[in-house]
Amino acid sequence: MRVLVLGSGGREHAIARALHRDPSVTALHCAPGNPGTAEIADNHTLDPTHPTAVVELAGRLRAGLVVIGPEAPLVAGVADALRAAGIPCFGPDKEAARIEGSKAFAKEVMASAKVPTAAARVCEDADEAAEALDEFGPPYVVKDDGLAAGKGVVVTDDRSAALDHAAACERVVIEDYLDGPEVSLFALCDGQEAVPLMPAQDFKRAYDNDAGPNTGGMGAYTPLPWIPEGLVDEVMATVVQPTVDELRRRETPYVGVLYAGLALTSKGLRVVEFNARFGDPETQVVLDRLATPLGGLLQACAIGGLSPDARLSWHPGAAVTVVIAAENYPASPVKGDVITGLEEAAQVPGAYVLHAGTQRDVEGNLVAAGGRVLNVVGTGPDVAAARIAAYEATAKIRLRGSHHRTDIALQASH
């Protein structure tokens, strides 16, 4: 099987790494990829949100499967264009991807499918926003209706800050605050059936103890020793399958990964949000643990042959990933600084490094090229051991001004 992966981040490096380990994958390509994917795949310069260019490249490479990593190509209709050209694609079409592209659409689907979620109101202007804030009370939860790469949500006790965020967006969803820990669960879908991956938890805030602004995610770990038994079955029965069924009823079958962001609240399980792609950085730990070859699974989704009884196999133990972010991330990350120490990090037993926002400069040096620069993955027999490996490797890497959280998976490792 010849596979093309679209995207350039740590998630795509993790996907490419898992595909590289699958013996059925005979050729692996990434577009645009990054210096990490270049070590295991052929990179191609390309705008992954340009449907015609993607179809042309996939045809030229004779790709038997295209895997779409980030959300922007999905919302741009790249999956639609590939399917129209007869090329199998892992990723929902434009209409189904609205489950992430529009918070209001997601709420409407959940209401129709009777999926448990926070009460919410869609607001188009300042007066509606003010009314909704007063209806729900603090802490205020204000979400940009459109795509915001994980940064469109403000949760605050400050009413004026909540109003300011609402004013900065064309359309917002204001909802009830959900208490309790959050869990990410990915389900692979072929439009009809869905199979769950292992739950993970990510850390959205920039600094230790969940301080600072929301980011795309500063670290993640799996498995979650503290989740209630039977949670995955409950999520599949009450959240994932009803959503897949509802989208199929609407004649927009969902093919790809459905990412359910969940809160385990005092009132029970609630959906915080849906995403139409693998979460970043949870993918980095979940795919590390997956023993079932990834290529065959994604291809089964793309061509509609996923078995509902598929029981995936998993490596024992745990994985923890720590995100190394550039100076001044998430506001305006500093780019161009040289990164060193990757060879030393790779020598740490049980650890490896995924590239997220890197590139080569004219002299061939590895430099920072994004906000989240590297993902350091540590593995071990349990969360505590995996955490030690991840931080030992992180300590070997040098990037001027960079920062990372020191408390990823800390509570789960006791």
Automatic annotation (TrEMBL):
Its cofactor is Mg(2+); Mn(2+). This is Phosphoribosylamine--glycine ligase. It is an enzyme of class 6 (ligase). Its EC number is 6.3.4.13. Pathway: Purine metabolism; IMP biosynthesis via de novo pathway; N(1)-(5-phospho-D-ribosyl)glycinamide from 5-phospho-alpha-D-ribose 1-diphosphate: step 2/2. SUPFAM superfamilies: Glutathione synthetase ATP-binding domain-like, PreATP-grasp domain, Rudiment single hybrid motif. The gene is purD. The lineage of its organism: Bacteria, Bacillati, Actinomycetota, Actinomycetes, Streptosporangiales. Residues 107-303 form the ATP-grasp domain. InterPro entries: ATP-grasp (IPR011761), ATP_grasp_subdomain_1 (IPR013815), PreATP-grasp_dom_sf (IPR016185), PRibGlycinamid_synth_ATP-grasp (IPR020561), PRibGlycinamide_synth (IPR000115), PRibGlycinamide_synth_C-dom (IPR020560), PRibGlycinamide_synth_C_sf (IPR037123), PRibGlycinamide_synth_CS (IPR020559). Keywords: ATP-binding, Ligase, Nucleotide-binding, Purine biosynthesis.
